[in-house]
Amino acid sequence: MRGVPALGAAFFLALGLLAPQSQAAPVGPSAAAARTTTGTTSAPAPKSIPVPKSPDASIGDRPLASETAGKATSPKAAPQTPAAATKSAKQFSAAAAAVDCNLSGVMTSSGSALVQQLKALPDVTCTYPLFDLTGTDAGKVFREAQMVTVSDALRAASATYSGDNSAGIGQLVMFLRAGYYVQGNNSAAVGAYGIALQTSIRGSLDAFFAAPRSQDVTEANGATLNEAVTLIDSAHENGRYAGVVKRLLAGYTGGWPNAMTTAVQHAGWVIEGGFDAKRADSGFVAALQADPTIATTWAAFVTRNSAQLNGGDVVTGVGMLLGNLVGNDTLRAQGRPLVKDLINRYPLVGATGPLTMNLVWFAEKQDKGNCSYYGTCDLPTRLVPLVLTVNHTCNANLRIRAQDMTAQQLSDTCTSLINQDAFFHKVIKDNGAIPGDLNTNLEVVAFDDYYNYSLYAWIMYGIDVDNGGMYEEGNPAAAGNQARFIAHEADWLRPTFQIWNLNHEYTHYLDGRYDMAGDFEAGMTTPTIWWVEGIAEYISYSYRNERYAAAITEAGKKTYKLSELFDTTYDNADSTRIYNWGYLAVRYMLQSHPQDVNTLLAKYRAGDWNGARTLLKQTIGTGYDADFATWLTACAADNCGTLPTGGQAPLCTVADTRQFDKNCRRDNVAATTGNYSYSFLNLPAGVKQLTITNPPAGWVYFSLYAQQGFAGVSVTTQYQ
């Protein structure tokens, strides 16, 4: 099983002091082996640890189109997210500065007076606040009788439509759009919409789209047309007006005015709504089944305008929706050749990547088992060198595959992870890796931003992408297994470079290798999330010497008892409990009851999950709850106790650059290909653990062998 859903509110981990975090395991078979293809058997998928979401994370699992895609100039058709209403209010605020909008007449009128009030508004933007109505106001303004009145008026006005908004038709359309939106979100307040409105709205849309001037290719017509097209979707009349969609796609060229291009974009909304499984009443699929030329016109729209493809254009946005054809049982036969042609016609990366990868998603996810037909069975293998053009080795235990990182960024990232390794062992005080754990190396995969992560990571590594990244431990007992953290740069923090969640995720790797027996799934047999996520947060913030403000704020709320936090799972908790309170629980236990932590980790390392659970729930039980509450009070006042010192170990001071001492480092270690860099240190009696090896007392000699020449490496020794 792979891809436990990512949880959590976004939190920022600065690379500055430090870079990434990852928990990875040795890479074994290529990513392609994790996919099921025709005539092959897929390898077991790596186990995954959720990663807190990035601010850009999508709510679904389909790859995003580019962020530069055209945005709606007003709220999208109902049903939609509440954010649209907020957007309308913001737009109204801007418009109101230049236009005197008074909606009092609209709010209090009915019948012909309502129609006149709407037409008299000085600008169509004056209707935007109507999308925000709720409660009694919503019911009074948008009850069905009001909607029928305005719809009938639109039908009458359409007979003489002049190709612009001189007669106020735009305000009538927007009132109807707002009504559907508000009723969709406040049906109890507004009441049901029935056959009377359906009959009326069909008559008004019939009349508008039949009006000769509604086909003018002008900015003036487009301003009203694009809202009328959206009204099709609002009213769930997608199938009845599939011909309007066909007409727009057939006529579109890159020379169309902006508002007309927006009408084509909104035709995409009609298409998308028409395939919505919750809209069985839209009739869109039936319309495409009855007229196959709609689909071929749609595909021709893409190829005819392919010069525009850049990821954020209307051709990409509407074209990638063609994939819905192969996801529908009744349309799959007509959709397959069209989708196949586009997938194989355009490059997988660059300007055409968003189109091709979205179509690949439909083919892979909704027409499963047919990758040989589409020619995509080897796509994961093909994509890795095309997308991840940077391949950098930090050391024998750590490699970075990246889409775009500079030499300095790579060096800083490697240094951060290597130094964090020593810091982790200082806190955990382990005796080496768990016997049989073969996850000796980690691969960090860094996409350039969340957009590229969403576009490619799902197929390259077989993961969900509605998250901030994914750590895959795999089976640490399997030879050839590869632990991997698949991440992306936090592009919203640029020019500061940071790989999202790296220090947190690297702790997962270390924790899995040195604290938790078996694979990720084994560690989930009892509630361990308080520790798994708590230690990742604790190490991340402590290592970077960073104050965890969100957790300290939570401490003051005293939401949970310590004994309750021992029961945290991914299923029963939100991101605040998982991350903020996991941190607080782990910090308290490490600082106040280190011997209990040592006992607990001994059981985790032995895979004694039931024994660990007995320790937490019976031996400790509620015994520390009162003290934890007292500690929370102090922590909320910024007196959480002493953290271990983070950052790099100090430089070694002995004149001989080959010699190390306790807890120090040497920078700029180098060796040419085929040669060694020799080092040594003198251990006193009683040392139980050295991070390099399991040492005897006395002089210890170690060396780095250069399979390839290296320079600028930092080496740290640490022992207790």
Summed up, what is this model?
The chain has 720 residues and is α/β, with parallel strands linked by helices. Among the domains are: 83-291, no CATH class; 524-648, Neutral Protease, domain 2 (Orthogonal Bundle); 659-717, no CATH class. Helices cover 46% and strands 9% of the residues.
- End-to-end Cα distance, whole Å, is 39 Å
* Approximate helicity band: 40-55%
The number of helices is: 29
Describe the main β-sheet briefly: 6 strands, mixed
Oligomer: single chain
What Rg do the Cα atoms give? Answer: 31 Å
Number of strands: 11
Helix/strand-derived category reads alpha/beta
Shape: elongated
Description of the structure:
This protein has 720 residues and is α/β, with parallel strands linked by helices. It has helices at residues 83-96, 104-108, 111-120, 135-142, 144-158, 169-185, 187-190, 195-210, 219-234, 242-251, 258-274, 284-290, 293-304, 314-319, 332-345, 353-366, 371-374, 379-387, 407-428, 450-460, 502-514, 520-523, 529-543, 549-555, 562-565, 575-592, 594-605, 609-620, 625-636, and strands at residues 48-50, 390-395, 398-402, 442-447, 470-472, 483-488, 659-660, 664-671, 676-683, 698-705, 710-717. Helix 4 packs across helix 6. The longest helix is centred in the middle third of the chain and has 22 residues, at 407-428. The model is unreliable at 1-52 and 67-97 (pLDDT under 50).
Q: What topology emerges from the helices and strands here?
A:
Layout: E1 48-50, H1 83-96, H2 104-108, H3 111-120, H4 135-142, H5 144-158, H6 169-185, H7 187-190, H8 195-210, H9 219-234, H10 242-251, H11 258-274, H12 284-290, H13 293-304, H14 314-319, H15 332-345, H16 353-366, H17 371-374, H18 379-387, E2 390-395, E3 398-402, H19 407-428, E4 442-447, H20 450-460, E5 470-472, E6 483-488, H21 502-514, H22 520-523, H23 529-543, H24 549-555, H25 562-565, H26 575-592, H27 594-605, H28 609-620, H29 625-636, E7 659-660, E8 664-671, E9 676-683, E10 698-705, E11 710-717
